[in-house]
Amino acid sequence: MNAPYNPGLLDQLQLRYAGGTAKMLIGGEWMEAASGETFETINPSTGKLIGHVASAGETDIDRAVAAARAAFEGPWAKVKPDERTRLLLKLAELIEANGEELALLETLDVGRPIQFSRMLDVQGAVSQLRYNAGWASKIMGETAEISAPGEWLSYVLREPIGVCAQIVPWNFPLVMAVGKLAPALAAGCTVVLKPAEQTPLSTLRLGELVMEAGFPEGVVNIVTGLGRTAGAALAAHRDVDKVAFTGSTVTGKAIIEASKTNFKRVQLELGGKSPTYIFADADLSKAIPAAAMGIFFNAGQVCAAGSRLFVHEAVADAVLEGVVAMAKGMKVGQTLDASTMIGPLVSAVQRERVTGYIASGRAQGASVLVGGEALSGEGYDGGYFVQPTVLLDTKPDMRVRKEEIFGPVLCAMRFGDDADIDALAGRGNETEFGLSASIYTSNISTAHKLARRLKAGTIRINGSGGVDPALPLGGFKASGWGRENGKAGIEAYTELKAVSVAL
Fold first, then answer.
1. Catalytic one among 32, 106, 197, 269?
2. Is position 137 within any domain?
3. Is 151 a catalytic residue?
4. Confidence band for 465, pLDDT divided at 50, 70 and 90
5. pTM of model > 0.70
6. Minimal CB count within 10 Å: which of 121, 132, 264, 317?
């Protein structure tokens, strides 16, 4: 995974996107926006233009939804489950075969270090497809004995929900696009997929592979555009049966409002302010690197990032020294360098947001143990880099402790023996979010008691890891509605229909 990149392939990609407008996939055809409008996509490592991309408006959204509807009620409805499985597995093979190209696109467009683009984005997408492919033939209804007079045959069907709008964020565009596509297609739905305007390129390449795999025209449509235009039009469209969105809580609220046009189903995976707990009896050789990578990985641009650290006072100095040492030792720099661990933030806007939060923390009394500044000058080439940062002495009412920063900023707090399980859970639950949490302790009772009390959709004990397609993903409170992945993720793309026959 740490192999050098292919300079020739990089040159080809840069020439390809610099030479014209990247088009949208609608009804099996690649086309520009009806208005002719475009937007720019920027390399976050350099701040320089990669290319121009078609900017969809309402006319384009109408065309894409119509194509998805025609496919859902036409050829796709006749495709048997085993054929859906075959198509999904074929797409997985194509992604694997074109993995280096996709990793380079993700690195250029997102600003993720190349080693992580290969490992997480490409391999994660392949895993999502292979897992969900198996579900296509295992979606089942059930029979029921009812109490009505007479003799009845009653059964429940589980049918595909229909045309699905899927809106994915800029932090993991490829793997999240596939993570939404795979269960929808396995269930028999059709899709209009919109990548974030900051990072459209890997999703457009995915569309080419979808067509190469042999999916019927209109089953997958990819529209590129701004959230306030294309995204809003998709969320409000009266012929969309479901909208699935991953992104900010603010946008999630807007999607809920827009969905009222036809009471479409809504699935939301939103923000987080996730706690990490390290107890005095924890294995620090595991806990320290997990706490550091839990916030510094992907420059902190992860919805489940462990952005709040609660550490027992007996080991607090050792833990904080270890995390600070890792922050200083991680190479921040150009993403095509295989030794780089932390890349840039996705945009100048995001850099200003993150540095603004750090300034707010300082102003409210937090101390900076390490980092705290934007990086520029030699080696940073105009990119949007921010130092990995640790803040100490934060209070519950501080913005840095309450709000999602979405950057490499850790808020660390000590606790003592006077803090019981209920008090610690209360600290973890003090924000509006409830996406994930991590616990490090050798006392299994402590771990399970705390896990039971935390209001979070995913909890890891004595270990860290990425998203697994077999486990449901989602959150409590303002972290979202519904679940992705696993059986729950497949069933989220189905409707139940009860049928009773008087015999």
1. 269
2. yes
3. no
4. confident
5. yes
6. 317
